[in-house]
Structures are given as structure tokens and as C-alpha cells.
Amino acid sequence: xxxxxxxxxxxxxxxxxxxxxSILNPSGISDCLNMLEHWDLxxxxxxxxxxxxxxxxxxxxxxxxxxxxSKDHIxxx
Length: 77
Hints:
Layout (H helix, E strand, L loop, with lengths): L2 H11 L3 E4 L5 H7 L12 E4 L9 H4 L16
Antiparallel strand pairs: 1-2
């Protein structure tokens, strides 16, 4: 099990939702957060108690973007 899986499971056990915000400009967020130049933004997460529970992402549910499956983006060496 990977670290991000453990984070999600620990949050779920406490009734917290974890959402990946994918509609941000990475360089704009890096500037806003005063990140060091040699750092790379890999995720911007929202964590909190959800009003509703859904199994599909909002981007997909509202027709804003089709789901991008992680298996299509994993590179194995």
C-alpha cells in the first residue's frame, strides 16, 4: 500500500473526505504559496467533512471533464 492510500484510508476512517483539486494552474499556486523553485506541486488536496458522499468525481458528475484513469498514466520501468 502506498502513502497516499494510507492517507485516504485514515481520513475515511475519521469520516473525512479527500478531494484532489485539478482545475488549478500549478505555477500560479506555487507562486501563491511561495514554494521554493526546486519544489514541484504534485497535488492540491481539500480535506474536510463532506456534506454528501459520492463515488464519482464532481468534474465527471457535472459533465465538466471525463474521468482520467490512473492506469492510463502510470509509467513502469
